Amino acid sequence: MKNTQKRNILLGFSIATFALASSVFAFTPVDGTFSDIGGRDDRQGIEFLKKNGVIKGYDDGTYKPEQSITRAEFTKIVIETTNIPLKKCKPSEVQKISSIFSDVNAEDWFAKYICSANKSGLINGYDDGTFKPNNQINFVESAKIITLAQDEKFIHLAKIEADLNENSDNPEWFAKYIVALENENAIDLNLMPEYENSFSRGQMADVIWRLSTGTEIVNTTEPLEINSCATLEKQLQKSQRRNNVGIDTRIKMDVKEVRTESITLDSAPMLKSMYTASAGDTSSDDFSTTNIQEFGVDEADIIKNDGSHIFFARGEDVRIVKAYPQNEMKEDAVITVPNMRITELFLDGNTLVLIGNKNEQSHHRDEEIMLQKMSSSYYNYSNFTEVRVFDISDRTNPKQTRSVSIEGNIISTRKIEDIVYLVTNNYLYNYTQDSQLPRFSDNGAISHIAKCDQISYFPNFTSQNLTTVSAINIKNIEEKVAFKNILGAGRNIYSSAKNLFIIQSDSAQEFVTEEKNGISVAYWDWKNISRISKFSLDGTNVEFVAQGEVKGNVLNQYSMSEYDNHFRIATHTNGNWRNGTNNSENIVSILNENLEKTGEITGIAKGESIKSVRFMGKRGFVVTFKTTDPLFVIDMSPENPQILGELKIPGWSDYLHPIDENYLIGFGKEVSEEAIDADRLTWDMQKGMKISIFDVSDLKNPKEIHKTVIGDRGTKSEILRNPKALFFDAERKLIGFPIRINKIKKEEDNGYCISEESICECKVLDNGDTICPSCQPICEPQAEIKNVFTGAQLYSFDINTGFILQGAVSHFPYYETEYWNNSYIIKRLVRIGENMYSISNDMIKGLDMKLKKDTSKEVLFVKAGTCSEIKDISSCMNRNDCEPIFVPFACDEGTICIQQAIFDSCAKI
Hints:
This protein has 909 residues and is mainly β. It is 13% helix and 39% strand. The strands form twelve sheets. Strands 1-15-17-16-12-11 form a six-stranded mixed beta sheet, with no helix packed on it. Strands 7-8-9-10-13-14 form a six-stranded antiparallel beta sheet, with no helix packed on it.
């Protein structure tokens, strides 16, 4: 029978089945490989069975994958690997096996397997009473045995057979078994032998591997559609198998309804007008904005500025402060959304968008309510991503125009023109009904983000999550929220003005062959994979375009870029330290508009990790680090990318910011020359925070032309992990950022001792000696490091003169340090006209362009309530009717104490 004829048994109908059990086969790990399977499509299945002790191969180290397998050998493998309950034969039953199959004797090595397979209904033998154990097994015979060895509640052979009889005339006896395997994507009929022909050892291993791990055959570059809730459940259970996770054993019950009334989806915000005067009468058209990656793609932040007012997200509040002119600074209004943690804002003219999250206990599935009654350790809490849209035409009286709540955890957001795009993740249990899928509300109208048949997937996803792209029109509230859903867990996103890219991190085993001392060595190794999903953006119309994958993990959004219809991405692979060497590497990949790889550079700085990336047009810049900071300059030609230049300097850059096409500013850390000599990095070898100017005008010879090191080790800034904390003014050539500066007080034997077992505090004796009783006899003295400044700094920069400190500001009063609380830590610097503003949780200060302050030009965020209800010192100090109460700090005798007293409570004056 021809391969094209094989599919005739399927013609005219489709089967929707449930997935197999979580672990269809049980294995015991065994190391090793075979010499004759390199380069074969079925080598992963062969190595999988070898690794898990199912097959051994031949004495000469081969497996002979093309060789056929006997009926006895195949039966043994199925019996030893299936996890379904078997009716095992007792010794007395094995002795009687000849009465069932005349050609099987009790003394045969395979007798007990054939007896158990027969007793369990997996085999019947031939009409003449024989089993023919030494005959080669053919494709359809093996398909029958493998399929019958699966749990019927997942395979549904009876349903498959009924559908075959209804849709086909006289289907072959074996048709239902072939259909079952094809439904599981465990076979490709075009690659299988003729039905009556023998089944090879390699094909056998491949099919069992796919059924065991849920690994599907992929014959498409397009996303597949979930056509029913049964198919969704099947795919979710396959993802569990791919992760070696057991089936969800929760009690299955009929779900009668969705209890949506348990969701508090429309908590009305409380608006407190501080002043009645109209806002927005005066403003400047020259002001700083959020540091974003791509032109035309806005990014949310905790602070926004429109040249007149500053909008600051703090907990469940948004403070609206009239900031210009500076001598009229005042708080115009406060928006409060109860129980919502507001994490970021968008500002577009007279429209303010609040984005945050809310945790709520959800009892919308009956079986979950039952479980909570049975086990106090299980509670189903749902996280909702909340979006609130406000009309702020009157800054003193904001009015909510739209409230959207989407079940799921937020990954990231972007805004293009009037549309806010949100990417969220939602963990999926083994859902079987549309009513169990994640929910959303729009101005109180509750629904679900999708039905089962509105979800896409690519085969072999591993995370049991639903990633959702939501598109919300913030100006036209009548336009419905649009959703696009794909199975898998998104981790990072990048967006251009036309396309959105979502990265899903994954891992898989890779068969590696390498030469060692002239000998070919093969082994299995884990590799990191980044799966890339591309969506086109056109208003609220979001369409899936393509999916691709690259090796390695992505660091952050700046490791990705789209240019001239090509997607560029830098990734890092985790090493396995094989032979005592870190063999991790860094890779830059270029993919076309269909996410097909066109060019790649591998092996960049082996053994080092990526610290920062910046793509600028046809060039890319990658910083890696181990003990030095190699800055690689890369020609990003789509078909032939190549490293043009490299600069090695101590330290590293965590963020690269372009000044123009020829110069970059790097923000990172400095390390000592000792680290380079030792080829390792310890805490003592780290120095302060470093800002550098790189000259990349000569692509083959990049240079660090200026650098400034701020403080000593432990000095840090939010900009090192969040570039939105950067104030950058290209016209005035100014940079500013929050910073916490540490200084080494003195190099002597005090501070802390480090032993092989612990870290302990040193005792300082009267004669100046130090002892560490619990650390003796090993004691390595460390220098005492003291925080000397917490605030923000402003620097001028110039390619000729470098960096010059222009000013610094702190919100901490002279009697208080950061150790008391974090409410005075400056979050951002912003500019309106010729005025600067520093913003912390508890105040906004008006400053000049040198960060000089006028104490009359500040706004304190006063907390309401009685003094005794206030639990932090800054809120207490901000109240004229309250005062802080301090208690002595208990410090062990002879130890070095930084704190002398601690805040205890807030009392009424």
